[in-house]
Amino acid sequence: MGSTQVHTNGQRNQAKSNGDLGIPPAIGPADGGKLIVLTAPLTETIDHAGYFIQMGMASMPIWMEGVLNRKYPSWRDVELNDDGSARYMPAGTRVLEASLQREFKAEDMVACLPDDLHRFIGPNTRVVAVSTHNPLGVTFAAGVYTSIFGSSKMPINSHYARLMFKLIKENPNRHNFKVIVGGSGGWQIIQTDLYEELGVDCVVEGRSESLDTLELFRKAIRGDAIPREIEVKHPTTRDAILFPDKRTTFGVVEMTTGCGRRCQFCLPDLNPQIDLPKEQIMKAVRANVREGNKQISLATEDMFIWGQVHTETPFYFPNREALIDLYTDIVNTHGVEHHVLSHSTIAPAVVDPLLIKRLSDILLPKSPIHLPYLSSHPQKKALTPLIGLETGSVAMGKKIMPSKGVPFSIEDWPSVVIQGLTVLNQNNWFPAMTLIVGNPDETDDDVKATLDLIYEVERRGLFAFFIPSVFTPLHDTRMEMKKGVTETMQLTPLQWQLIMKCWKMNLRPGQYSWWAPTAWRVGAVVLWMHKLRKLNGPNFKWPLFMFSSVMSEKMMGRMGKIYLGKPIKVKSRKELIAGLKPHYLQYLREDNGDLPEGYVSSPTARKASMALPVLS
Ligand code: B12
Ligand code: SF4
Known about the structure:
- The chain contains 24 helices and 15 strands.
- The chain is an alpha/beta fold and 616 residues long.
- It starts with 13 loop residues before the first helix and ends in a 5-residue tail after the last helix.
- The structure holds cobalamin (B12) and iron/sulfur cluster (SF4).
- Cobalamin binds next to helix 2, helix 3, helix 5, strand 3 and strand 4.
């Protein structure tokens, strides 16, 4: 390793996806192989076509792989080091590697792609450690789209994850080593009990930094029995989180863990709320560019809590100066050509609109995302963080996410979404917003309230990519035992309408040619006649017709086939602030305006506002 030469291989796994699983010849490596071999599915490792390619592969069924092949003919190309190890791996694999190197020698381990496993697994190998994000595609969003198209079990990513497991299982040295799986998707193997089929000995839930993880590897190497499932502790301090000194897929560098808003369905929120030290983040950024990465993305549940965790100010009032300082230093790091946002929440855009403006000034020039029909930036650049909308129903919000919009009350959630999106759009942020359809006990009124909000967004000319997914009770969350909709056949006409209305709105920027709307119309109806009609049942029919615009929504509404949405009363920012608990006012910044008459902000907030450099 350490070499800078790059190899590509456009043929990776291609033949296998056509059913011919070319297992490599049964010769082991000349040196007897590595003691520990780390790997991850090809489709979770590639990073050259942007986040959307991986998200697409998580949701599209394998029979649609040809579409991707045509759009990204070289998606299988990956860069290798001279010894055949992977040039970049998902951040989870890299942190695992760093964690193991506290105990085992670097030369005894390797991180490689599945197609290269045969180069490193030999008689010396005792552990094959797999990191996976979403191996079976049974998570939210991913599951629903494949099931709409017909095969809920085999998204493209899952197909490639299974190929990886097959390669490991059929390796001639399999009897000598244990297969240990970890990562955010490990729970899918536990829940589906696919240990035998995939050839997995143990699934680890939790972080690799844990001393229990090290002990597990020691046991496996000694040849002792290991448990099938083990839960290991999450570090509770900033310094206990490790940063790899190597290149990661998409240049992912951890920024925070946990969240703090306590949504009932959320898994990452169960982790301790930690914002990671700037020096460590910057070191990991430099390691990425040193190894040829041009892109950086900070992994977080909510970028806006960074710099405000366990301070005297509640975490939902962003630390403007700290965020500006961090992002400025990242995008100005020599070699960083692109920067992509990951997750955030929407209330901070209402709390501190000037922060959004300042961040746009810093981040837009390095954004690789262009949205020509939406962006007012001279080069049409845009920022697209992932933000949870989840529901437009206040009643449902109270049940599943009462603190989602703090400091604002969940009663004001629809107004917070509209005002937040207004600020974001003004600054060329066009977020991807997730929605949950089919929550436990969801009524028609809840779905109508969400549709009202979506129609309000449309009426106001605002834009977000709305990504509806069907409720999935994630393992270990506070809603683990709850049951919602389990098949697309069970969706009501209103739930289908919500899903199809979101997608119709998402396609707006792509329909500015004369032919696109017609192509969609014809394509959608033909697909419905041939396949979707049977799969998704009668409730799907009118929402699909609405999606394809075969007739106007008004007319379908008059015929009683769809719900047209009613205008909602949206509070202004000033009205939202007027409804805040009085002691919160001290944390708001005067330079954003809208404070109650005669209010004087606290010395700290005032000082900070004055100290801020003006960037424009
Ligand atoms: C960056 C990111 C992405 C990126 C890049 C992913 C990549 N391949 O690098 C993109 C945008 C492409 C993406 C896509 C998706 N993502 Co994503 N993503 C994240 C995010 C923000 C960070 C992931 C990360 O790198 N974290 C940092 C590393 C260090 O953490 P880690 O991977 O968990 O690794 C630690 C442990 O898991 C463990 N570990 C990891 N591997 C191993 C292996 C062994 C053997 C052991 C012992 C331990 C171990 O140790 C590590 C730390 O020490 C997380 C949220 C989060 N904060 O984690 C969501 C998250 C993981 N994603 C999620 C989802 C749902 C998806 C999608 C399905 C979304 C969609 N519908 O399209 C897709 C699936 C993609 C696919 N290929 O199938 C969910 C997972 C839910 C779940 N548990 O099933 C999360 C938690 C977001 C959320 N809030 O719900 N994602
Ligand atoms: S805001 Fe997002 S990350 Fe935070 S608890 Fe809610 S769902 Fe989880």
